[in-house]
Amino acid sequence: MKQKLLILTALMLHSAFAAASETPDAPLKGEEVAVLTDAPLVPPPITRDHPTKVKVDLEVTEVVKRMADGVDYTFWTFGGSVPGKFIRVRQNDEVDFTLKNHPTSKMPHNIDLHAVTGPGGGAKATFTAPGHQTNFTFKALNPGLYVYHCATAPVGMHIANGMYGLILVEPIGGLPKVDKEFYVFQSEFYTTGKYGEAGLQGFSMEKALQEIPDYVVFNGSVGSTSGENSIKATKGETVRLFVGNGGPNLVSSFHVIGEIFDRVYTEGGTKYQENVQTTLVPAGGSAICEFKLETDGDYILVDHSIFRAFNKGALAILNVSGPGDLAVFSGQKSDTVYLPEGGALQTIPQDTRAEPAAKNKEERIAAGKAIYAANCAACHMPEGNGVPKAFPPLAKSDFLNADVDRAINTVIHGLEGKVMVSGETYDSVMPTLGLNDEAVANVLTFVYSQWENNGTEVTPEQVAKIRAAKK
Ligand code: CU
Fold first, then answer.
1. Rounded to an integer, what distance in angstroms lies between the CA atom of residue 415 and that of residue 398?
2. How far, in Å, from the CA of 26 to the mean position of ligand 1?
3. In this predicted model, what pLDDT tens digit does every residue of 198-233 receive, in sequence order?
4. How many whole angstroms from 41 Cα to the centroid of ligand 1?
C-alpha cells in the first residue's frame, strides 16, 4: 500500500514537472482524430498531459442555405455551415491537416489558420481545386483562440461568402473548468438585395468595397441562435464564450445585455481582463468571455454598434433557466403615473406660425402627415401601432373611428386616465399639444386616412366648435 502511494506520488510529481517544463519538441505520444463541431457547440476540453499528433479533416462545400426568413444565399463553407467547424487542439500538438474540396465546388479554396507558424498560415500548402484534397502539418506552438479563413483570390469574396471559423489551441494544463462552453462567431454579408429582400441573393462586390453590409449576424444567419435555437444554461453555472469575428470588414463591439464578463481573454490571447462590459473583437480576431450566471432570464448577445443588432441581425439569445435570485435582480416592482407638473395636463408650447390653409382633403392629409411626424409619432409610433401598455394604437382604432368629436377634444385638451382602445386598457397621459385649429384638423384627417381608419375629414370649423364648447 505504502509502495503504491509512493509510486502514485512519483507519477503525479512527474506529470506536473512534465507540464511545467514541456518544450515544443516534447515527444508526441499517440495519434488522434480531432472532434469537429458546428456552432454553437464546441469539442470537449482536452485532458491529455502530453502532445500528440492530431488529424484534422475539413471539407469545403458550396451550399445554398437560409440567411434570413425567405432569404437564401450561396455560402462557401468549411464543413457545410457558417461559421466553419470548431477545431480544438493542445499546445505542442502536431496538427496533420487535410483540406478536401468537394467535386461540386465551382472554385478552388485553401485555408489560412492564424494558429499556424509558417508562410501564409497554410494557405499555399492547402490550395485545393474542386475534387482534390491537400495535406500539410504544423506545430501548435502558441496557445490561444485563433480565426481561420480561406485565402484564395479574391480573398475578400471568399471570406464574405462564409469561409471562416475558430481553432482553439489549449495551453499546457488546459483552461480553467467551466460548466458550459459555446461557439459564437460574428460576420457580415453583402447582398445584391436590401436586408430582408426575398429570394436567393447574390454577393455585392460594390457594397463590400464600401463596407456597407446588409446583414451582420452571429453564426451565419439572422436568428440562428434565438427562439428554440437559443444557447441554454442554468442559474449558478459558469459560461465561456469562444467569440470570433470573420469580418470581412467590421470590428465587433461584443456585449451581452444584462451580464458583465467576469473575465475576458482579450483578442483570444492568454492574459485576461476582469469585469468587462463590452469587448472589441477585430476582424480576423477573437475573444474568450467568461461569466457566472447569478440569476435567470434571457440575455441578448449583440454587436453594440447597435443598428447592426436590431436592424441587421447581430443578435443571439442566451436563455438561463431559474429559479432566479431576487436579491440580484428584482424585475419591475411597480409602474405608476408620474406627473412632475402636478395633476394638471401638461401643455407643449407650439410654434405659432400660421400655416397656409389646406384647400382640399389631399392637402389636409399632406400637411397632417408632417404634424403627425413632429408631434405624435414618438408615442403612437410612425405606423400608428402605439406601444403596448403605454400608448394606444391609432391604427385600426375603434376609439377614433367611433367618435370624431371625442378625437378632436383629445387633441385639443389632452387626455388622462383610463381609456379602452381596441380591447386594451391604457392608463397614461397625453399632453395638450397647443396645435391651432387648422393643425388639429390636418393631423386628425391624416390619421383617419391611414392604417384602415374610416377616412373622416376633419375641418378647422369643426375643431373651432369643439374648442368653443369646452370654454
Ligand atoms: Cu475559398
1. 16
2. 34
3. 999 999 999 999 999 999 999 999 999 999 999 999
4. 23
